[in-house]
Amino acid sequence: MMDPKHRDLLKKLRLELCLQALADGLVPHYLLQEGLITCDQLEEINSQVTSQRRTMKLLDILPTRGPKAFEIFLDSLTEFPWVRENLVQLCKESHRMPVGKTLELPDSVQESCPSDKLLNILAGKLGSEWEQVLGYLGLDHVELYRCKMQHPYSLHGQAMEGLVKWKQHMGRKATMQCLWKALQDAEVDPSIMQYILQ
Fold first, then answer.
1. What value does the CA radius of gyration of the chain take, rounded to a whole number of Å?
2. Angstrom distance (rounded) from CA 29 to CA 11
3. Residue 55: helix, strand or coil by DSSP?
4. What does the pLDDT average to over 115-135?
């Protein structure tokens, strides 16, 4: 898995990176050459109808390609030196949670039901990880597929649809504790879990 710090950085810059049309140049071909993506994944990227969607698909794939994915991605940005410099600088400025520090959900909120507002914010932060989280929450492949079909071009919409379905299906059993455990099991970035505690 990609370093959570790098994964979080790509999420935060997602829209900005999509505007750069990164997937229309040599970037994906370099990633293929280095073995970071497969031919099928390259075809999947190229099949998207706009440059923004091609870059979005590339950004969906990158975090799943191992611990060296971010470094190789930086090396691929020869046509976009300003993007590379920005990523490197932001990487230096970011601070990871101290090693050994674990987050715990307060007892006072464990049995409470997460609000729609919180779920909406969470949906916006999960990105492509929403499927894994919802899988841990109990949604099956059919339900996940329906979420995708109802919001084909919006990861936020897909995630929110899934979270709402979970809350409706589980009723009072849709607790903060269940949500917290799913986020932990999916190894979601600690910064997202930290946000829930605020």
1. 18
2. 22
3. helix
4. 87
Query: Can you list the domains of the chain with their CATH numbers?
Result: 4-93 (1.10.533.10), 107-197 (1.10.533.10)
Do residues 10 and 20 touch, judged by C-beta distance below 8 A? no
87 SS3 class:
helix
CA distance 82 to 147: 36
Say which amino acid occupies 79.
E
Q: Is the pLDDT of residue 17 over 50?
A: yes
131-161 pLDDT, tens digit each: 889 999 998 889 999 999 999 888 899 999 9
Does the pTM exceed 0.70?
Answer: no
Taking CA atoms, 11 is separated from 87, 106, 128, 155, 184, in Å, by 12, 27, 9, 11, 18
Which structure tokens are listed for 147?
């979420």
